[in-house]
Amino acid sequence: MRTILLGLIWACLGLSLDGMSLNGQRLLKRVRRGWMWNQFFLQEEYTGSDYQYIGKVRSDMDRGDGTVKYVLSGEGAGTLFVIDENNGDLHATRRLDREEKAFYTLRATVVNKRTGYKLEPETEFIVKLHDINDNEPQFSQEVYTGSVPERSDIGTSVIQVTATDADDSMYGNSAKLVYSISQGHPYFSVDPNTGVIRTALGPGDMDREQREHYQVVIEAKDMAGQRGGLTGTTVVNITLTDVNDNPPRFTQSIYQFSVKESARSGTSVGRIQATDKDIGKNAEMFFTIVSGDGMEMFDISTDRDTQEGVITPLDYEKKPSYTVEIQVQNTQVDARFLSAGSKDMATVRIIVEDVDEPPLFDKASYLMEVKEDAAVGAAVGSVSASDPDGIHSPLKYSIDRRTDMDRLFNVHPGNGSVFLLRSLDREETAWHNISVIATEFNNPRQTSHVPVYIRLLDINDNAPTFATVYETFVCERTKAGQRIQTVSAVDADEPSAGHKFFFSLAPEGTYRSNFTVRDNGGRNYCIYGCFCITGNHILWIGFSGE
């Protein structure tokens, strides 16, 4: 039996098989069986209204008498592919897409129509879809993002774009792609074979400070770029990244600031600003004082947030003004661009402003003494203050009345002399603590206070008194010389050497007195007596203090 596959490409092979009779009986002779090459080619995307003819399957067992029929099995048999059981014509029932499935494996055989027996083994063949250029190139990304340093040389690689074509790369040029640039001239170019985008202009034309962002449109065309090929496009957003090609520049050549003479070390005197067209680390800068009479008096640091130079005082003398030269430069320098200069200079003049300081007393506190019997208006002492600004501003003095509620003292407003307003008594208050105020006449807000401690000096203005009232009991018939009581006295005054009292019997007690008083060697005396009288006796003792 011979099976004939009528297709687009045919090749001949020979193979011997056992034959079968039409009625299914085995024959005793051997027959030759042959078939052509086992591939059919079918054009994809057929648009005709009838079934698409593929080819013919022909068996040697078919005598043309209608006793055999052809049977088809395998991928898509009966749905995608059908065979005419009478003549072996093979058709595709609908349009097929090679990009979905490139080939189908089918099997065909012939059977006896009456008995249903196979008249020969199945023959396997392939229906391969013949590609047409029905797919446009597709880029792997709709939008690409790339970057390249500014000032790059011509031909510097930026980014590679890639497109693919679903058509058969083994058949014709349907999947042969060529890249071209449709937007982005003259700044960039694209390699037609690899899709690598490169810079097309030199360093002088690719300046980020002039233009930072570019949008490039790339086309990929199949059919090797020939006319009639399909095209796909993509957008490439390219950013020029910064390089340090610009030095910092001061916004002005001369700055002037003022600082109060009372400013503390480290406080800000002023800020100077420099600009840099670069960005990021390439715009970072630092400031230094390089010369001037204020080099040792002031310092400058860089505010990392604002990139400003902050001038601060260290420890300056009282001088009307200072001048310093400030230098600014980048923290990172690109040697390729040193010809443009890497630093800038500015002059800073600092004026020291006088601060109106409060009056200054010549002592931190004053100690004064006055006798307690001093007359009203008597001078107690004096205080003195001066203006530390050196301009000899007139001062006036006064007493803080919160420290002298009884208004015992006053101070002369012009010369600071402290004097009495009322008489004093040391036995009531031995010390008085007051506060004297010095005020600038031309600026009353500038005041100073100083404490004044006043001690009252004692005079003997108080008579001694007995320490208590004495009531003494004595037995009658007491022997002469018997001590019956010790008495003592006190004095409110305060002599520096202590008190010395002299005791004696008062005149009222000397008549027919049975008692005597003797010094006991201190501030007390002993009373002695001898009497035998019934009733109450009152003893009068007089004394004086020394």
Automatic annotation (TrEMBL):
<feature type="domain" description="Cadherin">
    <location>
        <begin position="140"/>
        <end position="250"/>
    </location>
</feature>
<keyword id="KW-0812">Transmembrane</keyword>
<dbReference type="GO" id="GO:0007156">
    <property type="term" value="P:homophilic cell adhesion via plasma membrane adhesion molecules"/>
</dbReference>
<dbReference type="Pfam" id="PF00028">
    <property type="entry name" value="Cadherin"/>
</dbReference>
<dbReference type="GO" id="GO:0008013">
    <property type="term" value="F:beta-catenin binding"/>
</dbReference>
<dbReference type="GO" id="GO:0099560">
    <property type="term" value="P:synaptic membrane adhesion"/>
</dbReference>
<feature type="domain" description="Cadherin">
    <location>
        <begin position="59"/>
        <end position="139"/>
    </location>
</feature>
<protein>
    <submittedName>
        <fullName>Cadherin 6</fullName>
    </submittedName>
</protein>
<dbReference type="GO" id="GO:0007043">
    <property type="term" value="P:cell-cell junction assembly"/>
</dbReference>
<dbReference type="GO" id="GO:0044331">
    <property type="term" value="P:cell-cell adhesion mediated by cadherin"/>
</dbReference>
<keyword id="KW-0106">Calcium</keyword>
<dbReference type="GO" id="GO:0016342">
    <property type="term" value="C:catenin complex"/>
</dbReference>
<keyword id="KW-0130">Cell adhesion</keyword>
<dbReference type="InterPro" id="IPR015919">
    <property type="entry name" value="Cadherin-like_sf"/>
</dbReference>
<dbReference type="GO" id="GO:0000902">
    <property type="term" value="P:cell morphogenesis"/>
</dbReference>
<dbReference type="InterPro" id="IPR039808">
    <property type="entry name" value="Cadherin"/>
</dbReference>
<dbReference type="GO" id="GO:0034332">
    <property type="term" value="P:adherens junction organization"/>
</dbReference>
<dbReference type="GO" id="GO:0045296">
    <property type="term" value="F:cadherin binding"/>
</dbReference>
<keyword id="KW-0677">Repeat</keyword>
<dbReference type="InterPro" id="IPR002126">
    <property type="entry name" value="Cadherin-like_dom"/>
</dbReference>
<feature type="domain" description="Cadherin">
    <location>
        <begin position="251"/>
        <end position="361"/>
    </location>
</feature>
<feature type="signal peptide">
    <location>
        <begin position="1"/>
        <end position="19"/>
    </location>
</feature>
<dbReference type="GO" id="GO:0005912">
    <property type="term" value="C:adherens junction"/>
</dbReference>
<keyword id="KW-0472">Membrane</keyword>
<feature type="domain" description="Cadherin">
    <location>
        <begin position="362"/>
        <end position="466"/>
    </location>
</feature>
<dbReference type="GO" id="GO:0005509">
    <property type="term" value="F:calcium ion binding"/>
</dbReference>
<feature type="domain" description="Cadherin">
    <location>
        <begin position="466"/>
        <end position="522"/>
    </location>
</feature>
<dbReference type="InterPro" id="IPR020894">
    <property type="entry name" value="Cadherin_CS"/>
</dbReference>
<keyword id="KW-1133">Transmembrane helix</keyword>
<keyword id="KW-0325">Glycoprotein</keyword>
<keyword id="KW-0732">Signal</keyword>
<dbReference type="GO" id="GO:0016477">
    <property type="term" value="P:cell migration"/>
</dbReference>
<keyword id="KW-1003">Cell membrane</keyword>
<keyword id="KW-0479">Metal-binding</keyword>
<dbReference type="GO" id="GO:0016339">
    <property type="term" value="P:calcium-dependent cell-cell adhesion via plasma membrane cell adhesion molecules"/>
</dbReference>
